[in-house]
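hi!! sorry for the late reply, been swamped w classes. u asked for the two structures so here they r. pasted raw, havent cleaned anything up. first the sequence of the first protein and right below it the tokens
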Amino acid sequence: MYLINIASIVLQLAASVFCLRLIPQTDRRWPWILIFIGLAGMVLRRIHVLILMFLGAHDPSLVFELLGLVVSAMMFFGIAQIWPVFRRLKESREKLAESEERFRTVADFTHDWEYWRGPDGAFLYMSPSCERVTGYSRSEFMADPGLMERIVYPGDREAVAAHMAVEMDEQGVKYLDFRIVTADGNLHWLAHCCVPVFNDLGQYVGVRGSNRIIDNRKLAESRLENSRKQYRDLVEQAQAIILELNEAGEIVFLNDFAQGFFGYTLEELQGCRITGTLIPEKDSKGRDLDTMLQDYIHNKDAPIYDELEVVRKNGSRAWVSWASSQVLSEFNTPNGVLFVGIDISEGKAAEKLKEDVERIVRHDIKSPLMGVIGLPRLLQSDENLTPRQKEILKGVEDAGVQMMDLINKSLNLYKLETGMYECNPQSVDWLEIVRHAIRDLSTQHPGYSLFEIGLDGRPALDDDHVTSHGDSTLLYGMAANLLKNGLEASGGKPVCIDFQTGSPCVMEIRNRLPVSPEMTDTFFEKYATHGKSSGTGLGTYSARLAVRAHHGEISMHSSDSEGTVVRVELPGLDESGA
């Protein structure tokens, strides 16, 4: 019996200790103090019963004491089981409080104006930044949900009211830009975004909204729109072809003038490659226009100017002078090319008419010129003429021959430039053609120095030959022009002509004097001449045309130490010795 009472006392004391320990866990003082006092009273009662039993003054019932022990055990284990539950509850409260603190910190210190409306339209949360945006405090909005609609600029209220009517429909994200009038009377543009909010059970709990001041963006958009309008007005009203291609050479834009000029609409041409649609794949000079187009797109050194023939929708052709500039992306990489074109068909027609007239005049003047050349020859045979008169007649004859030579050269030059020259390749001796040109030049310029001819690193012999399939007329004209230039710049030294047989076959003409710096970059250009009163600037130009007609290459190198070297390379030439 004593042990039963002692066990009950121990269990009741332990339960009372647990009660004291639950005070900090539950943050509830008095409930647990009252339970502790009750348990302490029970302990004192048990001690009193134990003392009476020891003195023999009380003989308790065994069943009653066992029932008391069971109740004490149940109280102990019940409180012991409650203690970890309350501990977990406290930890959960602390974590929840920490999470709420982080949420409040993020929400309350957000720069944008954030809010949360419940399903009934009342504000459940309003960020303090509403005061920075509107001039009205959070408490004012929480107390008056209609304040948000009232601060909307009158011109935007209808759109905002329509938006608010569907804001609570639980469907997706919605956006709206509108103006508000702040408490101090200023006007601001807001970008509004709202999204429905659902809890973990999928229940709709309102809508979350965010408002941001976008005055700078709206100002930039206004300026951009004005700039676009000016651009559109400039482009659409321009009386010129304006055409934009992407990096693949596909058409992305065509102004109204260009659409009228070509006969296509923008929708018909968008995404089409310009080659094969508006311009042929190869022009009249045989140039690969598709390759040229890629060069235009990737060339950002400077604008490129060119004249190209275009094809209209009705099949007619026209000449257009193009200026192109590269279109760059925001990363400064090629993104396409912009073309501005002007119709020069009438100018081309006038130019062709002029060339036709000049060609006809050159052709028709040759007949009377034959008389000018032949008559002095006949008169020179007359024995009644004095030496002085014969000298004058010889001068007239030489002038006529020179004029005839110039006319023939100009006719061939015109044909080469326009692609009308019909190259007639035959088996020719290139070495003999050069010797022929040397003989003619030596007759016309007896005071000049001699020529030295080499073949594959040795002096050329009289019975050496260099045979080829070429046009003897073009090869002779090329050799005569280059040799004449070499003579005039020989500096009193022999002009060296070196042949190298093989594929390609090479002819190098060397003279002592260097080319002037003014001529270095324009040596083969048309009308380029320097320091020669009688020079036309056509000799080296026509020589280049003749070489290109044979699909060869011509180049020039000049220095003070080595003089000038003109190098001609012709393909497919072979040597046959005597």
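now the second protein. again sequence first, tokens right under
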Amino acid sequence: MELISQHAKEIMEGCKERARDAGLRFQDDSLEYIVTNRDMLELSSKSMIPTLYDYWVQDVEVLKETGRYELFPSNPYETVINTRPPISFYNDNNPDWLNVMIFYHVLGHMDFFQNNLFFQHTWDYDFNSRALSDKRLISKLRSEKGRWVDYVIEFARAIDNLVDYFSVLSAADQTVSYKALSAIDYYFDIFLQRENRATVAEYVKQIEQYNAQVRDDPNDGEQNFLDEVKTRYAEFESLWHKHQEKGESADKIDLLEFLIKHSEFLNREENRWMKAVIEVVRNTSLYFQPQIRTKILNEGWASYWHEELFLTDDRINGHEVDFAIVNAKVISMPRVGLNPYALGMRLFSFLEKMAEQGRISIEYQLIKHKRSREQYDTVTGKGRDFIFQLRERYCDLMFVSEFIDQDFIDENNLFVAGRRINKERMTWQYYVKSRKAEDYRDMVIDSLYHPPSLEVGVTADNSLYLNHLFEGKPLVRDYISATMLGLEYLWGRQVHLDTSEPVKKTSGTDPASKDKKETAEQQVMWKRYRYTMHDRKLSKKELS
């Protein structure tokens, strides 16, 4: 691994000037390294952070990817990490015209890292230096504690997706002052959702009732609504007071942080070194959280700019066809599956055009006539400003939920593909299942990162209690035993986990359904089960 040549660095600096002229913002300094494909394989196992701590899973990944590379050799174009200064890695045999394209893509990533608010907690430190310090700490502990360090890492990594990223993110925003939840906020944000387990229909109905009372009586409507709540739910007031005393957040609890603070086992003098290891795993997870949650936006933004800037760069004259071939491989939209580069880029281009024509407005949304919608154009000149605002304020879930609509689906000829078996040829057969925007949007949302939500507590006998807040997707049973084994070790006592699992309906449970064919979802019902890990033995029982 070595720094790029002065010739390539000069090309990069020229790309920076053109990118800044187009409106991108990023720090002046950056480091670019030339690496071989073999180097890429080793870096990828560490999520491209060269100084990340060593762990046996990384060696397994290197062996696996090396075997795959032997069968299917390929050249990765680039990768860039969100450090200070940003570090990017490039293949060692790229021609100049390809470097121009790749440099623009990297600059798009750098602009996104340094301006998107979901990365705000990473702006004030250099993770590469912190990772090096963590690596030295773990190496020192390994020399003292041996294999127990790797056991703790493995147990912590099994639950490193259960970190309260949004609390860390909100704490990083010094411009906003936070206050405890009011009684009405507690009712809607916690009581109805966690204590009462209200359905979506019931929740919406309650909001409508509250809005109606406040609208009819602006002065006392809210208090009258709360009085009705206290009459309907006798336990509401006591739970509200307990919430005020504890000062709990409406956000989910950070399980790793909970263990660090409350585990008697970890807080023993001889075991406190384990807390330092868990903290390393937790900080690493928090660093990668925004990248996981902005994959479509980040890659779409970088792809949008590498095409936009490359085509106007006079240094690539004569290589337009070469660019078209490479670019098509990056941003082509597959008929089956998802390409985050292509989807994100097309959404940015689509929304820029929509904002330019004034179609991001309530006036346009109220138009129902198809011809009138097609001809609507108020020439606002604000398209580019609008997508820069999206780059700053959105994550993938917000981006997809708000902007994938029927206009976008129709313009790009998108659809949800289904799969069925061809019994004659015994092969899979793909077909167009739906062209509706809501179905395509749901398919994309289902592919996004969404860790399970848990409530964490301690029982009377000091056992650790985890309550899985079920959202329609069960936990992966294959991982429950190993994860709870690690939790029992870190907690020092037995662990309980309540969760929901699908159970096939018994025949004849619904006489009305005998004459109609039920879907796969209708053929199952959900039941609550409690898993208990005690003395390294897992047991399971059904809850009433």
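hope this helps!! also noticed smth abt the second:
The CA atoms of residues 230 and 236 lie 6 Å apart.
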